[in-house]
Amino acid sequence: MKKYTVGAEHNELGAAATKRNSAHMLPVSDWLSDLPENTQLTDLIEVQFKNTRKGYFHNSNHLPLEKGVKVVVEANPGYDLGEVVLTGKLVELQIKKNKIDTSRYEIRQVLRIATDEDLERARLAHAREQETMIKARQLAKSLGLEMKIGDVEYQGDGSKAIFFYIADGRVDFRQLIKVYAETFRIRVEMKQIGARQEAGRIGGTGPCGRELCCSTWMINFSSVGTGAARLQNISPNPQKLAGMCAKLKCCLNYEVPVYEDASKALPSRHIALETKDATYYLFSSDPLAGTVTYSSDQSVAANLQTISTKRAHEIIAMNRRGEKPLTLEGNRTVAPEIGYVNNVGHEDVTRFDRKKKKNFRR
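Request: output the structure for the sequence above.
Response:
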């Protein structure tokens, strides 16, 4: 079992995530907001709390809510404070998309629009999260538990905190909850998350130079396998395939459907091409370019020749009829290569500086 150590490796990242504006996390384009009857279709609203945590509530009091408004909502116990990120018909579609069973999921009420007192109390509560997380890690280590506290989120009224933890297996944290309750004088809720969920809550920048998808727009995590990398001819290097969470990058799945459709036109890898001079075996393929590369040796790269998938199917059909072409390429004409053309110097950059002769009319 992997041991989790207590340290300051995520302290700075956690502090930066605490200061981050939640309005930029997991945004949803409300393209129905301009319709006057949008909010009349349903009283459901979507509220976002710290980082990636969201919830759905009823606006039974018919408050004038729109995107970006801070609201106080019911919690168990007490109340919580969040930001409205979606209203109207799209909220129902979000519930359906996220496969939330409304018969089991208790949808609570919106109490009021947040006042200055509510905002100040929530600010003081959230200011304790970093210190609480560091102390919570130390307490978990002192009890010898194989777990790591990834993030701490205080409720808006400061009476309750959610401790997000990571563990490889089941953890008996009953004693830990008692210690947390006595130490921090709050109600404690433990919630297990995975490495991807932790990366989404902490945030960061991926190898592509953009902010992590899991912390900006991704809501559901789908399984990622090495087959997606093989399908796209990506080098199976674990260091290059792994993301910030040390798991396979979620973006490996983005173009898989395109490659699957393009791969349907490729010839079978088990079919060899027979010509009058040699037998060729499939060595590699490029589904998007529609080309395949064949080798005259089945085990190593030898006499590599690249042809189109159309030409490969033509040769397969000829072999089935008992015919063999002279070469793989056949009578295909090679397009002339276009050399590099330097356009610099074709026009003088100082041509506008020349003085024009003045014509004097007499």
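The two ends are 101 Å apart (CA to CA).
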